[in-house]
Every structure is written in C-alpha cells, then in structure tokens.
Amino acid sequence: MKLVAIFFVVFSLTTASGLQAESVSGQAENFLASRDVVGVVYFDIGSAALKESARSAIDKLVPQLRQVDLYKFLVRLEGFASPDGEMETNVEISMMRAKAVADYLQERYQMGLDYYLIGFGAGDVPGGNQPVEKLRRVELALYENPWETETLPLKMDQDYR
C-alpha cells in the first residue's frame, strides 16, 4: 500500500499560460462537490485507538472499498477532532485517527488501495453542528479522480532519460 499524507493547504495558482486563480478555484470546488462519504468511524476524546465498534464499522465497509475503481475515484480518509484542546493537537489527533483506519485496513485486509490521509483538526469542517462526540471521527470519502489516470498513455518501452 502506498500511503500518502496530505496536509490541507490553501493555494492559488497563476501560470504563464494564462491559467487564472478562478479556474483553479472552480476545479477545487468541482472536486470537493464530488465528495461521497461511504462510512464514518468514531473515536473517544483524545484517542486514536480503534474501539470494537469502530473496527466493526470498518469491516462492514471493506466489500464496498474493494469494489472502488481507483481510476475513477480517490479514497480519502479524513480525520476530524472535537473543538476541545489546542489547534495543533487537534490536527495531530485527526491525522492519527486517519492513520489508525488506514493501518487497520492494511493489517487486517491487506487492502492495496492508495489512501490520501487528511487531518482537519477541529476547524471549519463538515458536520460541525453535530454533538461533540460525533465530531471525533474519520470519514471514508470517495472523490472523482481529477487526473483521469486511465486515459494517460503510458509507454514503458521508451527511454525517458
């Protein structure tokens, strides 16, 4: 399993070819609009340990995750924290929670997926109006793959040096 950790970064991009920040923003909005949460795993306060109920929730998602077409979708494990504690601690615990889910999938099921781990902490996140115990979670979300890797021509017999 290739594990990629991504920290949420806001950026704008302008290139010499005339690509405007608005089009990048529009692409980001389209990407985020494609979000489909397929499962949620809950955690205790200040903990990234998977309880039995969390493992059971993940177990029920495995058949669906095995069917995901990774050319069409990205799988993101998005960790969240409740507003208790410092911002830095909340981001760290939210990443640890996402990693705990990824580790469980790898260790128990040898899932060969590429996961993108996101730690949002307790900032402006989806579900912010829920009871505090529902904020300490990892959401398993699918996004449309903006890179459309299935359409990229790949010629392994060429020397690209």
How would you explain this protein's 3D organization?
Keywords: Cell outer membrane, Membrane, Signal. InterPro entries: Bact_OuterMem_StrucFunc (IPR050330), OMP_bac (IPR006664), OmpA-like (IPR006665), OmpA-like_sf (IPR036737). It is found in: Cell outer membrane. The protein has 161 residues and is α/β, with parallel strands linked by helices. It has one domain: OmpA-like domain (60s Ribosomal Protein L30, Chain: A), CATH 3.30.1330.60. 34% of the residues lie in helices and 19% in strands. The chain contains 4 helices and 5 strands. The protein has helices at 21-33, 52-66, 87-109, 132-135, and strands spanning 3-6, 36-42, 73-79, 115-119, 137-144. Strands 1-4-3-5-2 form a 5-stranded mixed beta sheet, sandwiched between helices. Strand 3, helix 3 and strand 4 form a beta-alpha-beta unit. It is globular, with a radius of gyration of 18 Å. The two termini are 27 Å apart.
Quick structural gist:
Keywords: Cell outer membrane, Membrane, Signal. The chain has 161 residues and is an alpha/beta fold.
Helix content, binned percent? 25-40%
The N- to C-terminal Cα distance equals 27 Å
How many helix segments? 4
Unreliable spans are 1-22, 151-156
Q: What is the CATH domain class?
A: Alpha Beta
Assigned CATH architecture: 2-Layer Sandwich
Any chance you could write out the topology, listing elements then pairs?
Blueprint (H helix, E strand, L loop, with lengths): L2 E4 L14 H13 L2 E7 L9 H15 L6 E7 L7 H23 L5 E5 L12 H4 L1 E8 L17
Parallel strand pairs: 1-4, 3-4
Antiparallel strand pairs: 2-5, 3-5
